[in-house]
């Protein structure tokens, strides 16, 4: 419950750090095969607050592609109401959520709810979240996460945030939004390009590359305070930051000794250590989920392909073999698969590799996919792509079935990065 | 009072104007070709341009004003047709040890932004190595990459892309003035 208030503070700090603009809008272009039918009753209590919370819960669940919403015909039920399970079962609902919006004992606004399995006629549990008029959508995301986890067995990602860069009227805006594209706030505005944002594992900071010094330099930016520090500004180019899973180190790419090579550095910029020694390009490092190895892109074999090396260097092993251009490796948080961009007949498309079987699957039919980023539950992959000559973001389920498109009305969106689980 | 004030202001304006020479009063050259804002390059004493660089680096008649080297797709070798140009710049850097050069590598928009950043770096590095082989000193040179981020041509076809696969050479004089 304290978490929601902390989040409120964070959101406020973000809003004051920059003017919110360029809201993302979402369009869903696919759905899962077996969707769970679920009924979300209106919350009892303040009608306006109830509407904001329930509509957030409903659209979160629907957008995931894993749920089918059953019409509740305006029924408002609180968390203690007697449930006629047979009735809901006959309406087609396998699950029902009911709750209320009221006051906590100390006078703050509180959203409470309970989730029922109508088939077994049992409660699956419930929760209460302290909220406020400004944080009703956040409370809705938390409820949706709870329902998602109870019904699918996996953690929900509705309370997570995403970062991305908007290019609009000659300006580059580094923005942070909720995973549904709402509540966008600008963390950094620059007249020079910003690329490669990467979330710290605790979600409090972003590392990125900014060209504000007329060349690529790596920064770490604390979102709540807006404080920025330079992690790497060596001779040549400094790029492609990636956090180690413990948040203590960054794998980076420097060209200070000639070509782009991988290095590791402490998050404060100290303790630089070279990881690769090749005559070609080594770039786009990403730590594996266990932190033991680093996936990266290299042209050491003649064309850009994905390789894997120990987290402190050593012998590199080639990972991709099909085709002449496989780049931007992103290991999934569950450690099972690798997302990357593959060029096929001149088209750049999102692909995944099952790391156990090495089986490759192409997930999109696009021309210009870039910068994949896994949701923290490994279920969805966020990418930058192009529609009608304009940059948009697209979220694709790991099996390729569900696709959502996020676009900004007045600009190009690119360089998405999905943040960690909300703690 | 108001009515009186306006003519008074107008006459003041006319008086103000009449103190500056009216260009084509004497039937001279057309007005458009005169004045600092219309086709006359500002000259600073000492033979340097507006950036404080010697004119031989920026005068379109001088070979040294050519600062771009173009590359083939996915390639970073300096092509033979640019060897002369690189040699001219190397010669200048050898003769002017106090001068520094920033080489910015660029790529077209296709593919990974980060991979393109490294590809642009390789292009800039290839130009740097050629200059060093011809006598320029490491300390005079820095190669960086702008990747696909700063296209010269914003188009999305081969003619735009070929203009964007490029390394640019920027100069800085010994006194710190220059193009970067």
From TrEMBL, chain B:
Region (Disordered) location: 142-161
Main location, first listed in the record: membrane
Bias kind Basic and acidic residues: ranges: 147-161
Keyword terms of this UniProt record: Cell cycle, Cell division, Cell outer membrane, Lipoprotein, Membrane, Palmitate, Signal
Subunit and interaction comment: The Tol-Pal system is composed of five core proteins: the inner membrane proteins TolA, TolQ and TolR, the periplasmic protein TolB and the outer membrane protein Pal. They form a network linking the inner and outer membranes and the peptidoglycan layer.
Protein function: Part of the Tol-Pal system, which plays a role in outer membrane invagination during cell division and is important for maintaining outer membrane integrity.
Family of the protein in this entry: Belongs to the Pal lipoprotein family.
PANTHER family listed in its UniProt record: LIPOPROTEIN YIAD-RELATED (PTHR30329:SF21), STATOR ELEMENT OF FLAGELLAR MOTOR COMPLEX (PTHR30329)
Protein name: Peptidoglycan-associated lipoprotein
Species assigned in the record: Dechloromonas denitrificans
């Amino acid at each position: 419950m304290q978490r929601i208030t902390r989040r409120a503070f964070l959101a406020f700090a973000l809003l004051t750090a920059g003017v919110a603009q360029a809201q993302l809008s979402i369009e869903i272009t696919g759905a899962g095969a077996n969707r769970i039918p679920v009924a979300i009753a209106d919350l009892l209590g303040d009608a306006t607050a109830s509407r904001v919370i329930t509509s957030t819960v409903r659209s979160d669940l629907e957008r995931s592609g894993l749920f089918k919403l059953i019409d509740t015909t305006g029924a408002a039920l609180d968390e203690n109401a007697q449930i006629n399970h047979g009735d809901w079962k006959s309406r087609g609902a396998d699950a029902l959520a009911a709750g209320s919006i009221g006051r906590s004992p100390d006078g703050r606004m509180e959203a409470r709810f309970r989730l029922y399995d109508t088939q077994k006629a049992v409660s699956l549990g419930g929760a209460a979240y302290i909220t406020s008029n400004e944080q009703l959508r956040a409370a809705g995301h938390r409820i949706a996460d709870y329902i998602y986890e109870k019904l699918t067995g996996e953690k929900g990602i509705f309370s997570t945030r995403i970062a991305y860069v908007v290019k609009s009227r000659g300006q580059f805006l580094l923005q942070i939004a909720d995973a549904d594209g709402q509540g966008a706030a600008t963390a950094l505005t620059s007249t020079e390009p910003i690329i490669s944002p990467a979330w710290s594992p605790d979600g409090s900071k972003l590392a990125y590359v900014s060209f504000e010094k007329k060349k690529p330099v790596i920064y770490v930016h604390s979102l709540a305070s807006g404080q920025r520090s330079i992690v790497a500004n060596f001779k040549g180019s400094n790029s492609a930051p990636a956090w180690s899973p413990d948040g203590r180190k960054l794998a980076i790419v420097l060209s200070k000794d000639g070509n782009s090579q991988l290095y590791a550095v402490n998050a404060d910029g100290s303790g630089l250590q070279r990881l690769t020694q090749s005559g070609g390009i080594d770039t786009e490092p990403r730590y594996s989920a266990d932190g033991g190895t680093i996936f990266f892109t290299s042209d050491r074999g003649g064309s850009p392909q994905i390789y894997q090396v120990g987290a402190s260097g050593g012998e590199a092993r080639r990972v991709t073999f099909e085709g002449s251009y496989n780049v931007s490796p992103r290991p999934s948080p569950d450690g099972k698969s690798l997302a990357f961009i593959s060029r096929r007949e001149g088209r750049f498309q999102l692909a995944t590799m099952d790391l156990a079987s090495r089986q490759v699957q192409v997930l999109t039919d696009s021309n210009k996919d870039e910068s994949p980023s896994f949701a923290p539950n490994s279920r969805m992959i966020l990418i930058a792509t192009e529609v009608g000559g304009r940059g948009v973001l697209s979220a694709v389920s790991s099996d390729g079935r569900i696709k959502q498109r996020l676009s900004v009305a007045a600009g190009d969106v690119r360089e998405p990065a999905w943040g960690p689980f909300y703690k | 009072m108001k009515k009186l004030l306006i003519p008074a202001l107008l006459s003041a304006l006319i008086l103000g104007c009449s103190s500056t020479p009216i260009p084509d009063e004497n039937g001279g050259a057309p007005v458009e070709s005169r004045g600092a804002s219309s086709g006359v390059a500002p000259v600073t004493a000492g033979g340097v341009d507006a950036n404080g660089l010697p004119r031989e680096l920026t005068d379109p008649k001088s070979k040294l004003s050519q600062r771009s080297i173009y590359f083939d797709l996915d390639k970073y070798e300096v092509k033979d047709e640019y060897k002369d140009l690189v040699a001219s710049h190397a010669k200048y850097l050898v003769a002017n040890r106090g001068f520094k050069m920033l080489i910015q590598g660029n790529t077209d928009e296709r593919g990974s932004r980060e991979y393109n950043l490294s590809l642009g770096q390789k292009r800039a590095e290839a130009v740097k190595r050629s200059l060093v082989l011809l006598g320029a000193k490491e300390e005079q040179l820095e190669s960086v990459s702008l990747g696909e981020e700063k296209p010269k041509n914003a188009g999305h076809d081969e003619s735009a892309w070929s203009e964007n696969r490029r390394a640019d050479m920027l100069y800085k004089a010994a006194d710190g003035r220059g193009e970067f």
